[in-house]
Amino acid sequence: MGDGKLVGIVLVSHSAAVASSVAELAQGLSGAGKSVPVAPAGGTESGDLGTSAELISAAAASVDRGAGVAVLTDLGSAVLTVKALLAEGDELPENTRLVDAPFLEGAVAAVVTASTGADLDAVAAAASEAYGYRKV
User: Fold this and answer.
1) Partners of 17 in the beta sheet?
2) Which of 25, 48, 107, 127 has the smallest set of CB atoms within 10 Å of its CB?
3) How does DSSP assign the chain, residue by residue?
4) Where is the PTS EIIA type-4 domain (predicted)?
5) pLDDT tens digit sequence for 30-77
6) Measuring CA to CA, how many Å separate 27 from each of 52, 82, 109?
């Protein structure tokens, strides 16, 4: 992508602490690449465990740089909430995509790939490919 726009990443977890920590780790591991816009959207507005459509929408708007937004979720209602927002059609920035990927490994792969200036398809593919990462 030669226009200088970066794909934004939103990390949706049931826990604000988990979403923030994964965002911090993924950004830290992206190395010398461009600064990728990453926003955690964890928990509820009151600080409880859960998911919040409002927090997700705000996070997506905050990372939208015109190259698309990749949304990674932890599980259950986080997935359902993002799907509902996408179905609404006007709650998330244009070209927002829910990415089927493991939360931590996928987030790191997405941020590292986005830091190279890759497009949304490449970022989503890299995150999804993280399902194949072997540890032993």
Assistant:
1) none
2) 48
3) -TT----EEEEEES-HHHHHHHHHHHHHHTTTS----EEEEES-TTS-SS--HHHHHHHHHHH--SS-EEEEE-STHHHHHHHHHHHHSSSS-TTEEE--S-HHHHHHHHHHHHTTT--HHHHHHHHHHGGG----
4) 6-136
5) 875 568 999 999 999 999 999 999 999 999 999 999 999 999 999 999
6) 23, 22, 10
Residue-wise pLDDT for 4-27, tens only, equals: 799 999 999 999 999 999 999 999
| Residues linked to residue 96 through DSSP beta bridges, in sequence order | 69
> Tokens 């911090």 correspond to what residue?
24
User: How is residue 30 written in tokens?
Assistant: 């992206």
The token pair that represents 105 in the structure block:
């490994």
